[in-house]
Amino acid sequence: MEQLSFFHDHSLLILVIITVLVGQLMMTLFFNKFSHRLLLEGQLIEIIWTVLPAVTLIFIALPSLRLIYILDEVNNPSVTIKSIGHQWYWSYEYTDFKKIEFDSYMIPINEMKPFNFRLLDVDNRVKIPYETQIRMLVTAADVIHSWTIPALGVKIDATPGRLNQISFSSNRSGLFYGQCSEICGANHSFMPIVIESISPNYFMNW
Ligand code: CUA
After folding, report:
1. How many whole angstroms separate alpha carbon 179 and alpha carbon 122?
2. Fewer CB under 10 Å: which end of the chain, C or N?
3. What is the pLDDT of residues 125-146, one digit of tens each?
4. Which residues line ligand 1 (CB under 6 A)?
5. Residues 99 and 44 in one domain
6. What residue numbers bound the domain in which 146 lies?
7. How would you describe this protein's topology in the membrane (predicted)?
8. How far apart are the CA of 169 and the centre of ligand 1, in A?
9. pTM of the shown model
């Protein structure tokens, strides 16, 4: 997640540089009366404005490629959780201990408590121990869904007939909210994900 954030800042900086440079060039074109009756070619400038964007793209492509492989790394997970997308709720299975299975439904607006987030809270949260590598196995039972938690840098499709894998960890306690991000039907907006990151001791007691 941190690396994703750094990459975002990096590419945004390049974007700003390009925008300022091109903006400056266009402004000077608008505000002068230069003309050159005999100008037919300019080899040097064409080499510059071909090679410069190519090099710039490499500076974006290489860190991006590195990030793909970092995100695929699994790093000896301590806990494995299986997440199954349904129309329209998530269900979870913890099979490292005795088999724990539960469904996780959004809390409807008319049943909300004052402390609940509208369309974002669920009845059964996904509990994880913090500072622990988690392996998430993601699949779906009906149509394609997507298990997405922006704050943890996790986004992976839940596809029927396939078992996708994603690895993550949380470095603090807290609640992490996410939503399905694959258009999966009428109630696509109403299948949120809530991760409850707690101390490993509390997790083992649970
Ligand atoms: Cu499940 Cu959108």
Report:
1. 11
2. C
3. 999 999 999 999 999 999 999 9
4. 85, 145, 180, 182-184, 188, 191
5. no
6. 79-205
7. Multi-pass membrane protein
8. 23
9. 0.83
Distance 180 CA to ligand 1 centre (A): 4
Domain stops at, among 21, 54, 72: 72
Query: What integer best gives the mean pLDDT of the chain?
Result: 95
Nearest to residue 192, comparing CAs of 104, 100, 102, 93?
104
In this predicted structure, the answer to whether residue 35 has a pLDDT above a threshold of 90 is: no
Q: Are 140 and 86 in contact (CB under 8 A)?
A: yes
Atom of ligand 1 nearest to the CA of 181: 2
Cα–ligand 1 centroid distance for 196 (angstroms): 21
pLDDT single digits (tens) 36-72: 899 999 999 999 999 999 999 999 999 999 999 999 9
- Which atom of ligand 1 lies nearest, measured to the CA of 189? 2
Domain check: are 83 and 168 in the same one? yes
- Tell me: do 161 and 59 sit in the same domain: no
Residue 146 β-bridge partners: 157
Verify cis geometry, omega within 30 degrees of 0, for the bond prior to 88. Answer: yes
Domain boundary among 72, 97, 117: 72
